[in-house]
Amino acid sequence: QNLKLGDMIPSLQGQSAEYSPTSTKNGKEIYLNSSNLMLPDRQIWVVTTAALPWRTGTSVNPTLRAAYLLRETPARKVTLMVPWIEAADQQKVFGKVKFREMKQQEYEIRRWLRTQADMPDVAQKLNIVFYKGRYHPDYGSIFPVEDLLALIPQKESDVAILEEPEHLNWFHPETPEYWRKRFRHVIGIIHTNYLAYTQTYVGGYYKKYILYMLN
Questions:
Q1: What confidence score (pLDDT) does residue 24 get?
Q2: What is the pLDDT of residues 150-192, one digit of tens each?
Q3: Other Cβ atoms closer than 10 A to 110
Q4: Which of 48, 61, 62, 88 is the most exposed place for a label (fewest CB within 10 A)?
C-alpha cells in the first residue's frame, strides 16, 4: 500500500501534494516545479552547522554543495549560511582564536574554494551569511543561538538545503515560522547516524531508543 505524507504525519493531511517532490499525471510520475533546481532564477540557501577551516563533514560538504550549485545550475543566487562562534568556542574548535571578525573567516572560506577546491570561478560569486552559534562539547557540534529564518529575506525564501537539520532545529525560537512554511522546497541532509554511534557505548542497546525519542 502506498502511503501519503498525510498518512504518516497527521499535520500534513490535505497538504501532501505541496510537500511531495513528485506527482502523477496520466499514470506517469512528474516532478513539481518547486523541486526542480534546474529552473532558471532559483534562489538557494545551503544552511549548515560548521564552517571552514574546521575540516568536518558539515563544513566541507555544504561548502562544495553550494559552490557546485552555483556553478552547475542557472540559479540567480546561492547562499552558504554558516555559524559564527566567539573566541572561547574558537579555542575549543580550532585550538586557538583564529578570527576576530566574520569577514576574516569569510575570506578563509573563499580562499579555500579558490585554492584547495580549485573553484576560482565561484569563490567570489558565492554569497556567504553568518549566524550566531555556540559549540556544545558534549555533542561535538555547533548549535544556532538565534532565529535563522529571521536572517533570511522573505523574497529569497525559495529553496532551503538544511545540512544536519536535527541540530539546526534543536532549539526552536518562539515564532510561527518554520522552514516548510517559508520556503517553496526544503531538503534535509543527515550527516551522522547517531543511533549507530550510540549502540557502541555501554548500554547502547537501550540508550539508542532514548536518543530516538529525544530527537
A1: 66
A2: 999 999 999 999 999 989 998 878 888 899 999 999 999 999 8
A3: 19
A4: 88
Q: pLDDT tens-digit profile of 76-104?
A: 999 999 999 999 999 999 999 999 999 99
Judge whether 134 and 92 are in contact, CB under 8 Å: no
C-alpha cell at 149: 529564518
Q: What is the pTM of this model?
A: 0.81
What would the 3-class secondary structure string for the chain be? Answer: CCCCHHHHCHHHCCCHHHHCCEEEECCEEEECHHHCCCCCCCEEEEECCCCCCCCCHHHHHHHHHHHHHHHHCCCCEEEEEEEECCHHHHHHHHCCCCCCCHHHHHHHHHHHHHHCCCCHHHHCCCEEEEEEEEEECCCCEEEECCCCHHHCCHHHCCEEEEECHHHHCCCCCCCCCCHHHHCCEEEEECCCCHHHHHHCCCCHHHHHHHHHHHC
